[in-house]
Records
---
Amino acid sequence: MALPPSALRSSDLAGRAKPNFFIVGAPKCGTTSLHEYLQRHPDVFMPFYKEPHYFGADLEGSRFRQFRNKPERYLKLFRDARGEKRIGESSPWYLVSQCAAEEIHAYDPAAKIIIMLRNPIDMMYSMWSQFRYSGNEQIGTFEEALAAEPDRRAGKRIRRAAHCITGLQYREMARFSEHVPRYFERFGRENVQVIIFDDFRSDTPAAFRATLDFLDLDSDTKMSFDIRNPNKEVRLEWLQKLIVDSGFSLMLLKDRLTYLATTHSLVPYSYRTRAVKGVIAVYTKYERRSPLTTALRKRLARELKSEIDALSALLDRDLSHWYRII
């Protein structure tokens, strides 16, 4: 596979702080929480900017062009690192990409890889809900969005402001048994940690300690664990319509503000990050997501049974409760 220039320039960047571990996905499986918990560890540097997606040349959408083939821009994210043992970044669409594993390996063959997985039914539904909030998704029901996947493969029913076209293929995201082996094969199983969201949610401190052990870090550091990245809804629908109708998206606006907050050195860090959070707060309200209908959950459980069984075999862990619907 021919690699893009972004994956081949590591030798040109000698002496610069750059990541040595990657949280590669999957989306809506706890990556934001893990990213922010790791930020609090004294031996870890994680940039304020999450999800640069520097790798993954096959990912489609404007969001994935912010750093691609721009190594200097990418490395600015890590310029505040001060000798921490581990420098990391989190880009949850790396997992679904067919070439990101190869590109990351070309960049740093010794990198550590963290994968987070969740019941794919819940993951897909949560992703659809977030896309509705960010303006990436124009279809008003999850069931209809699933039915639209063939049209979208043909380039239809995709709004002009869509920033993550790859993500509109919800079922493709759920093929964990196909995506995970790419990282096992490139980096070796000993250098890939797979975290099941069920474990992460039920005993976050234990799951976090296991991650620190995997990264060869002190696991006795005292930490607090709060809920991160809860379900979001649009507070001001007229503002979303204004942004989307302009051909832009909330996600791109957030990305640009976050990048400025990460790299602008003239304003204190606390003020930079507070400004970004303030803009997001104006647009956002937090509400529990309505549950899937039992009928749709049962249909998806039947459809995904063989995929979940394949993942169970791959990880040597019984995950059949993901498709057992009472």
---
Amino acid sequence: MAKKMDEATKRRVRAGRMLLSGKGPTEVAKEIGVARQTVHSWKGVLDEGGIDALRAIGGKGRPAQLDARQLETLRRNLLDRPTNHGFGTELWTLKRIRLLIERLFGVSFSEVHVWRIIGELGFSNQKPDRRAIERDDIAVEQFKRKTFPALKKKPKGMAA
């Protein structure tokens, strides 16, 4: 039975097939979503050993500190309210997620790496509106139309 390919291997093989079909490294890089230099290095491997050599690449990087089960646990916890995890407001920040990972798994990451992890989990940056909860939109509109124009300076010589 054939060994199942991980996502990175699938991307390398797809890129290799595109290169073999005549597409250039720049075009392949854009379509696959990797750096142009990465495609050039894959092309070197492809030229020397073919598609099988691209499949064999791997295991060179540092092993992941969180496995798939732990990432799923993290995803479920992030769908929870931050206040359920002891934080003061209803807003997840990188710092809070970093602390949550430390609490749950005993692993410490930089905020940059936490950003990558939450991106892989399918979360995106959400910036809340910076408005007071007590804001009265009708009063704001009235101020803009009536009060503020009366307060603005008028050019000299013009009657109020």
---
Amino acid sequence: MYQIIDGKRISQEIKDELKEKAAAMKARGEERCLAVIQVGNDPASSVYVNNKKKACAYIGIKSLSYELPEETTEKELIDIIMELNGRADVNGILVQLPLPEHINEDKVLLVIAPKKDVDGFHPVNVGNLSIGRPGYVSCTPAGVIQLLKRSNIAIEGKECVVLGRSNIVGKPMAMLLMRENGTVTVCHSKTKNLKEIAKRADILVAAIGKPKFVDESYIKEGAVVIDVGIHRNQDNKLCGDVDFERVAPHTSAITPVPGGVGPMTIAMLMSNCVQ
């Protein structure tokens, strides 16, 4: 029988630990503050921003919210970030992606001071991760590591396969698994023999961006499967990159969608803020 890795429960554990830490910091006169900037009113982005505000309120972190109109210029956005960089009372800055097409995302993310980049996207933080120095780590991959550790799943010495090489999930995921002494293979759209490589994995992380792409033919019996994908199927129900019903019976542990990796992303963002 396989174990369902419960991201809701684990993320709640982390938030409760952070709440205690934040209260202790407040008692010492240190208060954390996260500034969240959203440009335009993309409905999915609004949901994420709202969840981030709720998490801040729960943990006891102050949150500043900048809800800017769609037509905000790149310069206006950069000016706000520069002002927040200079504010001693703001510890974390988060720009909700995606940004409108007339704004250069890469340019904007570079403006955020690395020590306030709680999303872990700045090249300085990515570089620190790659050479094993401390810094903020991209929240979704950091959440995956916590899911594994808190479910008593050993990473050291395991064969780990990551499907996907994005800057936000695939690449940092591979580096974090290596940091935990896993042996890591990264696959992508140009990988040959994808199934054969996936079938070697003791731990398979699917971040490929295609609904139900991974079926049982990709899975080694008894593997641990982590599903980072999130999509809506033809019935408007949430599903992941993994075909859960077909894959789960072949695993020793698996994350569901929803309720697996998703809740961990905000928990790790809060962890970065408190840090």
